[in-house]
Every structure is written in structure tokens, then in C-alpha cells.
Amino acid sequence: xxxxxxxxxxxxxxxxxxxxxxxxxxxxxxxxxxxxxxxxxxxxxxxxxxxxxxxxxxxxxxxxxxxxxxxxxxxxxxxxxxxxxxxxxxxxxxxxxxxxxxxxxxxxxxxxxxxxxxxxxxxxxxxxxxxxxxxxxxxxxxxxxxxxxxxxxxxx
Length: 156
Description:
The protein has two helices and seven strands, in the order αβαββββββ. The protein is of the alpha+beta class.
């Protein structure tokens, strides 16, 4: 008997990632049924902007060519959830936009009100976006913007 572990023929990592993505769906379902977020809860959801099935306005895709983070908090509309993903209306610099995000495109989910965070591996063997060298500190987020960085929530 050798001391090396055999490669699994069962994709356990993929199964676990799918189960965790179900958490995101169930949370969104819950706030949809309740008609809003309870208490101080709010969510940061990061996703790959070029993943299959993502549908966002062109100006957002140009500004966020790889990954984008949205905030679901006070002002959102037309939240619709299905088996594949969700659709939501948000305002970016006071310009309304409708986004369609498949759950497979989601890379992170954070609820800072309760210090809860999930990080997801790329789906179906897709490569991760290589981090760029540490840039200068970012400019302050413009008023009315729903995009934030999730760097402070990521494990290093």
C-alpha cells in the first residue's frame, strides 16, 4: 500500500461549492418573500462579469471587465430568483440598471451585519482572475454607487 492519496472520482469540491451557492439563493429567496432585508442585514455579492449568463449594462462591463461587487441594502427593485440565478435592479451613480447574475458566476457573498462570508471557487474549471499588484489606495466611492471592494473580507 502506498502513502499517496488516490484522486477522487467524485467531485467533492464542486458538490460543496454548489451547496454553498444554494445558501446565497435561499437568502435571496428569504428577503424576496419578506419584502426586504431584516434589521441591519445587507449583502455584498461579488461576481465574474464575463461568466456565462451574466447580463449587465455595457458601461458596467467596461468599468468592471473581470469582477464586480454589488451591494443589496436599501435601494433595489425587481428582485427575481430562479434555479439558475437572480435578477435585480440597482442604481449606479444614480443611473438605474438591471442585472442578471447566474449563481455560478458568484465569487463571494458577505453579510457584514453578522460577519458572515462565503468565497467561491471558479465554476467548471474556469481560471481565477489573477490579482494585480497592490494599487494605490482607491478613490472614495461616489455617492449613490452600489459597487464596493470585497478585499477586506477576503482571507489572506
